[in-house]
Design a protein that fits this description.
4% strand; mainly alpha; elongated; 2 strands
């Protein structure tokens, strides 16, 4: 188990801690002279988890430690973190349920598309829209959590949430267009291969039919 994969597993470990911190209203943690309530603790856990997402990818590329396990676990960890955060924020009435459903639904729809694409033998790379969506998503969730204790941030949190939703829908549309384009190309290429194969078989059958009478004539 290398360091990037360990960080990815650590991000998954943060998920239940994040949920517990968000939904436990009476949770208080003393750090020296500071008394941290559940909202600030949840924000700290979320930011630490988001930082591991940046760090594991950077280290995997820097140290050339990109593995199949890491490629499988990383998106799972990301979706678990975001989904858990949004569902918990819906539970404490900080995020509208319909907005969380759209954002989470987009994540699983795109994951399904990328899995189908991988089964077809090609990869759909993350677009600039998707990367912007990810950054906006982290910012929005962090602002919503902070706004629980700092009401002055509530407007910015709502703006970031709407931005996340718009980028999520736009990037999902971009993924669908890329998917259908590549799928169309794949189907056309497969169809051309089948037609060429049929044409070769037809030509072979025609050659056999042309040679057969000559052979009979020689026999006579």
């Amino acid at each position: 188990m290398n360091v990037p994969n360990t960080l990815t597993l650590l991000r998954i470990f943060f998920v239940p801690l994040l949920v517990a911190a968000l939904v436990s209203e009476d949770l208080r943690v003393e750090v020296g002279p500071l008394l941290i309530n559940n909202h600030w603790l949840a924000l700290l856990i979320f930011l630490m988890a988001a930082f591991t997402d940046l760090l594991d990818g950077y280290l995997a590329r820097r140290w050339n430690q990109i593995t199949t396990v890491g490629m499988l676990l990383d998106p799972v960890a990301d979706k678990l973190l975001v989904s858990a955060a949004l569902i918990s924020l819906v539970h404490i009435h900080s995020v509208p349920a319909w907005m969380a459903v759209l954002i989470i639904g987009r994540e699983f729809a795109v994951s399904g598309l990328r899995s189908i694409a991988a089964a077809e033998g090609y990869t759909i790379a993350a677009s600039d829209l998707a990367k912007t969506k990810t950054a906006t998503q982290v910012l929005a969730i962090a602002l919503v959590m902070a706004a629980r204790e700092a009401p002055g941030l509530e407007l910015w949190a709502q703006v970031a949430l709407w931005g996340t939703m718009l980028f999520a829908l736009a990037s999902a549309g971009d993924y669908f267009l890329k998917f259908w384009s590549r799928l169309d190309e794949s189907i056309k290429a497969r169809r051309r291969t089948e037609l060429l194969q049929l044409e070769k078989e037809r030509q072979k059958a025609a050659m056999r039919a042309a040679v057969a009478p000559k052979g009979k004539t020689r026999g006579r």
